[in-house]
Amino acid sequence: MDFNELSAITDEIEQIRKTYELFDEEYRLNRSKAARVEFLTTVHYIEKYLQPRAKILDIGAGAGEYSLYFAQKDHRVCALELSPANIAAFRKKLTPELPVELVQGNATDLSRYADESFDAVLLFGPLYHLHSETDRQRCISEAKRVCKPDGKLFFAFIGNDMVFLTEFGYRPDYFTNGDFDKTSFALTDFPFVFHTVPECRRMLLDGGIRILHEVASDGASELLAERINAMDEENYAAYLRWHWYICEKPEFLGMSNHLLFVGEK
């Protein structure tokens, strides 16, 4: 499977499944200090709201990085994932001491879960892939339905605007030959779907979500990866504190590969 073969797949569900045969989600969030910034920032915000023994639904759970972390913290975790490759990577990490309920399923249909049954709902993968606004709103609606009235919802997006700089780091000709509209600077939505900050905000507001935080979850970490990875633990901790200081500032939001929105009904 290569990108040409992937682009020829017209069925969206099958294309998502095949995408994760090309992209190794198992190590994306833990392969280095720089890669870990997104994970640690997201956990930082989730833990602001969790009570002990919270019930968490991880929709689009990937290879289980968040599910396993919160299970280790004695929270009750249900995980749903579409990709067989990700499920296989997830299952390798499960142990009897980590009783995560892992199932294969689609984020647009959470009928297996009861209304208002989770304290926290994590939606960290599906909105990377859904092209149709109808499907995106169905996904948001289902996440909202299963969240308790006083619960919190956490949404991740891939930002449109930072990709230009990260791709430029790999391809010096990206600004002339990159796969984007040269007038609007809208990226081509393949193999992922990209959104600007206002587009993310509008999508959630249209879905009836009250937004509590808008976060540049990884910021410049990919651009600065070599320097971040060379840090000792003391300097890395100091970098994270600075990142958390700036990551909600409006002037920094668009300059992040990944965006985190925290909301409630």
Query: What's the total helix number?
Result: 12
Average pLDDT score: 94
**CATH-assigned homologous superfamily:** Vaccinia Virus protein VP39
The CATH class is identified as: Alpha Beta
Portion of residues within helices? 40-55%
- Strand percentage, roughly? 15-25%
What is the molecular shape?
Answer: globular
The fold-level CATH name is Rossmann fold
The oligomeric state of the chains shown is single chain
Annotation, overall tally of beta strands: 8
Low-confidence parts: none
Largest sheet: 8 strands, mixed
In the CATH classification, which architecture applies?
A: 3-Layer(aba) Sandwich
Determine the N-to-C terminus distance. 41 Å
> What is the element string, with H for helices and E for strands?
HHHEHEHEEHEHHEHEHHHE
Number of domains: 1
Give structural notes.
The protein has 265 residues and is α/β, with parallel strands linked by helices. It has one domain: 3-Layer(aba) Sandwich (Rossmann fold), CATH 3.40.50.150. Helices cover 40% and strands 19% of the residues. It is built from twelve helices and eight strands. Strands 1, 2, 3, 4, 5, 6, 7 and 8 form an eight-stranded mixed β-sheet that branches. Helix 4 (65-72) links the parallel strand 1 (55-59) and strand 2. Helix 3 crosses helix 11 (233-246). The radius of gyration is 18 Å and the shape is globular. 40% of the residues are buried.
Secondary structure elements and pairings:
Blueprint: H1 3-7, H2 12-22, H3 33-46, E1 55-59, H4 65-72, E2 76-81, H5 84-93, E3 101-104, E4 118-123, H6 133-146, E5 147-159, H7 163-170, H8 174-177, E6 194-195, H9 197-206, E7 210-216, H10 225-229, H11 233-246, H12 250-253, E8 258-264
Parallel strand pairs: 1-2, 1-4, 2-3, 4-5, 5-6
Antiparallel strand pairs: 5-8, 7-8
Helix pairs in contact: 3-11
